[in-house]
Amino acid sequence: MAFRTTPLSRALSRSYATLHNSPPSGKSPTAIVMLNMGGPATVPETHDFLKNLFSDRDLIPLPFQSLLAPLIAKRRTPQIEAQYAAIGGGSPILRWSETQGEGMAKLLDEIHPETAPHRSYVAFRYVRPLTEAVAKQMKADGVKRAIAFTQYPQYSCSTTGSSLNEIYRKAGDFDGIEWSVIDRWGTHPGFVEAVAQNIEAALQKFPEESRAETVLLFSAHSLPMSVVNRGDPYVLEVSATVSAVMDRLRHANPYRLVWQSQVGPSAWMGMQTSDAIKGLARLGKKQVVLVPIAFTSDHIETLYELDLEYVKEAKELGINVHRAESLNGSPVFVRALADIAAKHLKDYTSGSGPTSLQMGLRCPGCTNETCGKQKNWFARGGRA
Ligand SMILES: C=CC1=C(C)c2cc3[nH]c(cc4nc(cc5[nH]c(cc1n2)c(C)c5CCC(=O)O)C(CCC(=O)O)=C4C)c(C)c3C=C
Ligand SMILES: [Fe+2]
Ligand SMILES: [Fe+2]
User: Fold this and answer.
1) CATH code assigned at 221
2) Is 279 among the domain residues?
3) Is residue 275 among the annotated active site residues?
4) What is the average pLDDT score of the chain?
């Protein structure tokens, strides 16, 4: 059948070009699949986001999961809906992920033309675009080679591990695609530089004469102690990021790493961010920069918990506080993503395996069988 261009088909192909940064060409594109949890783009999507999140056994193993998850999600929905409403009506993560991915793919076409054209795909764990839909799109685009590129800088089985397990479970949908994995990059110099620049910008808001007294309070999403104690590497890797950022800043300020957003009654990694703010006030500290360190774009933890709750709390305690911006559209960060992917492609072409050595090691206390199968599957390039 002859293909006729109509206003609709022209509009569709324009939007296709916007979504898929490289122009259509005869060559099969190299797919860079940006893995993240996602967040509800609109307030009414909050319930389904929470239901999918509480149904994820890799994140929260619950007894009678399929019965309990919908109940917990339903109970929690009004409170979390109110938080998304307060930050402007939804999570900006899809918009930022697309911006970052498109910028990265464009740069990759320039700095690594051997594998061009590059196309970025966003695959979320709990909201659209979900893994199945991304697989369909990749097949339609003729993808034969894909990189699973985690957008969590530091590895945890509960985040990156969960996204990789989901791709492994949906292996049939990706039939014929050869995979490799970028599983962590928490000390990459470009990422460290982008974070450091945002801290420097926040520090500029304090008077020069007292700037050096400002405490840098790095804040990361906490982990249940049960996860830490089974040997999950996240706490170590977040600490390594903080250390690298402080080296880049030449240790010009005192600092601490603290933990936020714990959920439920069990023990979580501390000290909690809100307690640290109270403690700093008690110690007479007057200036603080809050630095989100484990997530690359804004979300409720930055826009609600940090900006609306903790900044307010700190101000009430007499602390002058500013938050370092999230990486969002930082060109330095987009360049870092492209550099990380280019190095991975180079190493892969010159014979290094599809996954890092570190990814091959399961947490010593891991009893989740899918983790083991998933690691073996990716180590074989995603083949049966
Ligand atoms: C590096 C980031 C994150 C880690 C590690 C992480 C672990 C983790 N989270 C939960 C439970 C929940 N997390 C929730 C929301 C949420 N989590 C992260 C990031 C990490 N989680 C983000 C960025 C968000 C918010 C998304 C957004 O769009 O804003 C929620 C839902 C919100 C709520 O009900 O409070 C839960 C629940 C566990 C159990 C866990 C480790 C095992
Ligand atoms: Fe979380
Ligand atoms: Fe595991």
Assistant:
1) 3.40.50.1400
2) yes
3) no
4) 93
Cα 38 to Cα 330: distance, rounded to the nearest angstrom: 19
149 CA distance to ligand 3 middle (Å): 18
Residue nearest to atom 35 of ligand 1 (CA): 263
- The DSSP 8-state label assigned to residue 366 in this structure reads -
- Residues having CB closer than 6 A to ligand 1 are 37, 39, 53, 59-60, 76, 80, 91, 93, 152, 156, 158-159, 221, 223-224, 227, 234, 263, 294-295, 299-301
**Is 152 in contact with 159 (CB distance < 8 Å)?**
yes
Residue type, 112: H
Domain that holds residue 280: 189-323
Query: Per-residue pLDDT tens for 16-45?
Result: 333 454 445 579 999 999 999 999 999 999
Would residue 265 count as lying in a domain? yes
Whether the pLDDT of residue 131 is over 60: the answer is yes
Number of domains in the chain: 1
Q: Which two tokens stand for residue 174?
A: 């990706």
pLDDT at 304 over 90: no
Q: What is the pLDDT of residue 25?
A: 56
Structure tokens that stand for 18 in this block: 């916007």
- Ligand 1 atom with the smallest distance to the CA of 91 is 28
Residue entry with tokens 């977040």 = 238
Q: Is 299 a catalytic residue?
A: no
Task: Choose the catalytic residue: 56, 183, 298, 339.
Answer: 339
Q: Whose CA is nearest to atom 20 of ligand 1?
A: 221
The interface predicted TM-score of the complex, written ipTM, equals: 0.94
Ligand nearest to the CA of 221: 1
Give the pTM: 0.93
What are the tens digits of pLDDT across the range 162-171? 999 999 999 9
Helix %, strand %, coil % of the chain (to 5)? 50, 15, 35
Dump pLDDT digits (tens) for 79-126: 999 999 999 999 999 999 999 999 999 999 999 999 999 999 999 999
